[in-house]
Amino acid sequence: MGRAPLLGLHLGAMGVVTLVVMGIASANGLPPGGTFADDNGNIHEGFIEAMAAEGITRGCNPPTNDRYCPNKAVTRGHMAAFLVRALGLPGTATDYFGDDDESIFEDDINRLAEAGITKGCDPPNNDSFCPDSEITRGQMAAFLVRALGYADDGEGNLFIDDDSSLFESDIDKLGTEGVTKGCNPPANDRFCPGSYVLRDQMASLLGRALSLDPMTPPPPNSPFQVLVFHKTVGFRHDSIPAGIAAITALGQEDGFTVIASEDSSVFTESGLVDFDVVIFLNTTGDILDAQQEQAMESFIEAGHGFVGVHSATDTEYDWIWYGGLVGAYFDSHPAPQPATVQVAEPTHLTMQGLPPTFERFDEWYNFGTLPGHEVTIVATLDESSYTGGNMGEPHPIAWAHAYDGGRSFYTAFGHTAESYSEPLVLTQLANAILWAAQSG
What we know:
By secondary structure, the chain is α/β, with parallel strands linked by helices.
């Protein structure tokens, strides 16, 4: 997919910041697994890759620069460097601030001040920049609004938590331009103006502001092995054989080997050593003993992946660690029926290739609780599209998160045998397996 040209910045005769179009060559492709080793599966990875392709970010561990540090807070100095590279700000001989002489970002900071994008950090004097201070989301909004000349704040009051913020107008302008979607998906009625901006979030914000297309890297080329575990102590789904056959076929297409078993004795350190991903396919009840549970915990702690399918949430209710891994527990369900699925995180790798909304037939679970705040809900149900949903908004139906050293993905799809011949279900499953396999 082609990318829109980058925006460049030039100073007019009166010092007015003017945006012009600059043609910058696109990257020809990405290596398997992407540019950086520490952002695989991050929901902002597509924009991180786009930023790297345009030379806006170079990584966080020079001179190697094979890491991005996505969860590290952005400092004011970092922000200056990002904006200078993104906008092509010209140099200046003026030294605007007295506290950045030892900063590696001093030149970037002076360029930012010359362009009128920063006024300093200590009004009214404004003779300091505070280059090492972490930047808040409200401050970031002000930087971007000044840099890009946004003026339209729509009708204002886009978010409910910024009424007392000095940056409310900037935040509304950023939201009106579609640069920010809020901080609490899928509701996104909050902006969290006082929260610090992380490097991965900065990539998405700048990427949207510059109209970059997210770039999804191909999965790692190295083959890996998947255990499809389908033991049941409670209800047993007739769809399990269809699920095994579908995952086996996905492995043949995507280069991983599938071993299916309902023998819990495989859950030992030596029994799991050759696997990169364990899938609980429609498991139910108490399926592992204490020693086997410990082996599974060690497997995830070693940096491996887990994928839970449908009744994986109807499994191991008394194993606290597993409750965190799978994310939530099954509570109830109405009769199988069609419902509308909404993709909540379209840039997450597990959602690649899925339309924003689609209808499908399944047995739709209600869960006892919402997944925790550390979990990314990637798909939800529109409860108005079917009967029997009781969770309100959001009603999560698929989610992903880093957990205890590894990765976990869960989808409630998969009650019926027909599910495993649906292209959208197979796309999600393949994405999830490949994403989980990258956790190591």
